[in-house]
Amino acid sequence: MTEWDIKKLRILRVLSERGTVTATAEALLMTPSAVSQQLSNLGRQLGVPLLEAQGRRVRLTDAAHLVLRHAEAVFAQLERAEAELTGYLRGEAGEVRVGAFSTAVPALVVPAVQLLRADGRPGPDVRVREAEAGEAYELLAAGDVDLALSLAAHAPTARDTRFALLPLLADPLDVALPVGHRLAGDPGLQLADLAAEPWIFGGSGPWSEITTAACEAAGFVPEQAHSASGWTAILAMVEAGMGVALIPRMASAERRKGVVLRVLGADLPRRHVVAAVRQGAEGGPAVARVLAALKQVSAARGNSFSSAE
């Protein structure tokens, strides 16, 4: 295959613009003999003569003009590549694949994407994949996602050197009661006050563990009356008076008219949300911009939590 030397093609291009070897050498800070030697070498590489004598000067051959027509397309593509690479280095290009648990998608990921789009600069292309903690870290380790959002309780330990973990948010847990519940209007409601109530939470997995741990911290083991993992199903059962449940404030958009969400007092339980990337990847420009947007959204939510409490 013919070798196309970009450096030599640029010299040929300048010669076509400047007209003489001397002017080309001055423009490129080379000697005239070096210009002539580089173009002779390029002609040998391509297998065609590029210059021919015209009196005391040289002119480009028809083959040289043909080469330049194709070289211009190459130069244009290189300019586009350089511009795209510059954008990538600024975090304005590239793709960032995010794996996130269900409530984090509308509460954190979508607002972060909107924030990136609203700042007036081009941004990375964010691809979202809903995944619970176990799957998210498998995807991250396999290289199928670039950033994972999970609960800290289900993140890898600090000894797992494959990942870098970055705390994002402490998400308060509010208690969901049916509107007519005897404690729905109690101003000093505490989690222990609900020890004798039937509880609704998942049969296994993170939400089961979070609910159980919060109740045990308040001094009782919750009686699981019903098992569900989706907030729509849980809140529908609470509304029907079938039990009570802990609801993360990030999921409060799912609330129903027949449900009262009460902020608990001194024993306010929280779940901690973290972002994870493969070790060393947090410095990548596109990933760093998405992380910065997630941190900004998380900070805004954290401030709204504080004011609500």
Compact description:
The chain has 309 residues and is an alpha/beta fold. Helices cover 43% and strands 21% of the residues.
Key features?
rod-shaped; single chain; alpha/beta; 11 strands; 309 residues; two-stranded antiparallel ribbon; 43% helix
Average pLDDT figure: 86
Any idea what the radius of gyration is? Answer: 32 Å
Helix/strand structural class: alpha/beta
Largest sheet: 7 strands, mixed
- Annotation field: number of helices: 9
Distance between termini? 71 Å
According to DSSP, the number of beta strands is 11
Low-confidence parts: none
H-E string: HHHEEHEHEHEEEHEHEEEH
State the helical fraction: 40-55%
The fraction of residues in strands falls at: 15-25%
* Gross morphology: rod-shaped
Question: Could you walk me through the main structural features you see in this protein, from its secondary elements to its overall organization?
Answer:
It is a single chain. Helices cover 43% and strands 21% of the residues. It has 309 residues and is of the alpha/beta class. A hairpin with a 2-residue loop joins strand 1 (51-54) and strand 2. The protein is rod-shaped and about 105 Å long. The mean pLDDT is 86.
Please describe the topology of this protein:
Elements: H1 6-18, H2 21-28, H3 32-46, E1 51-54, E2 57-60, H4 62-89, E3 95-100, H5 104-118, E4 125-130, H6 133-142, E5 147-151, E6 163-178, E7 198-200, H7 206-217, E8 223-226, H8 231-239, E9 245-248, E10 259-262, E11 270-278, H9 285-308
Helix pairs in contact: 1-2, 1-3, 1-4, 2-3, 5-9
